[in-house]
Amino acid sequence: MHEGFEKPFIRIHLLYHANQKSITPEGIQPEINSHRYQITPQEIQQELTHLANEGYLTANGSQYSITASGKGELQSVQQHLEPLYQEVVKNKKNVSSF
Q1: How far apart are CA 16 and CA 75, in angstroms?
Q2: Spatial distance between the Cα atoms of 95 and 2, rounded to a whole number of angstroms
Q3: DSSP three-state, residue 92
Q4: How large is the average pLDDT for residues 10-39?
Q5: Largest Cα–Cα distance in the chain?
Q6: CB 66 within 8 A of CB 56
């Protein structure tokens, strides 16, 4: 997957896991990469820092926790993903081959 499409999925994934429990770059990397992303702890750190700067996460040392704003954004993303999933994944047989 091209980085331009991959990065938003990674950000959503990070928010999702931060909503479950506090995360660290090193601790979350195996989970993120288990979904066929190839991202280093340093790249995860950059994304976590961006999410914190945007107010979606708070940092306490290397631990990141979701904020109320992050929870709201995650809920919004989930609401948008459901119809997108229905259209794109459920109807993937409609993708034409070249």
Answers
A1: 10
A2: 18
A3: helix
A4: 94
A5: 50
A6: yes
The pLDDT of residue 69: 98
Dig out the tokens for 81 from the structure.
């993903």
Phi, psi of 60 (to 5 degrees): -130, 90
Which residue has better confidence, 96 or 25? 25
- What is the C-alpha separation between 37 and 59, in angstroms, rounded? 24
- Radius of gyration, alpha carbons of the chain: 15
CA-wise closest residue to 56 among 19, 20, 25: 19
| pLDDT tens, position by position, 42-96 | 999 999 999 999 999 999 999 999 999 999 999 999 999 888 888 888 776 655 5
The two tokens of residue 70 are: 């992050």
H helical segments located in the chain: 3-20, 25-33, 41-53, 68-88
- What is the pLDDT, as a whole number, of residue 77? 95
- Asked whether 14 and 48 are in contact (CB, 8 A), the reply is yes
